[in-house]
Specification:
Helices cover 70% and strands 0% of the residues. By secondary structure, the chain is an all-alpha fold. The longest helix is centred in the C-terminal third of the chain and has 27 residues. The radius of gyration is 15 Å and the shape is globular. The mean pLDDT is 95.
């Protein structure tokens, strides 16, 4: 694995923080959302697709170097974060709600996320975060809808 792959695969090295690497690995993804235009769906959806495809490749490399579902590999956290924030209206409260839900679903792994995580290799590493992101996306939109009523 080269330096670029290590940096990207670990969410700009946040994955190497010894405690809560998944939570810390989500931070760069959140910071990107504050860049004007970044959360534009025309930009974000292709980025999500590219991150998913490249993430499978990188997660396989991380797994071969660090073992099964290595905590250092946090590109999946970036992917799940971006999925969670699709069409979330920008406000501090909306972003806090969505981030807390994202971490909840990623850590607790309700059905069938836990089963998907068992898929071998980079695909399994990436897919469980895709599904956790989708759960977050749906629940966040419901909560935000009712808050704004």
């Amino acid at each position: 694995m080269n330096k670029f792959e290590k940096i990207i695969g670990s969410s700009f090295l946040f994955g190497f923080i010894p405690f809560a690497p998944g939570t810390f690995g989500s931070i760069p993804a959140i910071l990107f959302l504050f860049i004007p235009g970044f959360n534009n769906i025309i930009f974000l959806i292709p980025l999500i697709l590219l991150t998913f495809i490249y993430g499978i490749f990188l997660a396989d490399k991380f797994e071969s170097q660090f073992g099964k579902d290595p905590k250092q590999c946090t590109i999946d956290e970036m992917l799940g974060t971006w999925i969670s924030f699709i069409f979330i209206p920008f406000s501090l409260i909306n972003y806090i709600i969505t981030f807390i839900l994202w971490r909840f679903f990623d850590i607790i792994k309700p059905y069938p996320i836990k089963q998907i995580e068992k898929i071998k290799g980079g695909l399994g590493i990436m897919l469980d975060d895709v599904l956790a992101g989708i759960y977050t996306l749906i629940i966040s939109h419901i909560i935000i809808y009712f808050i704004n009523q």
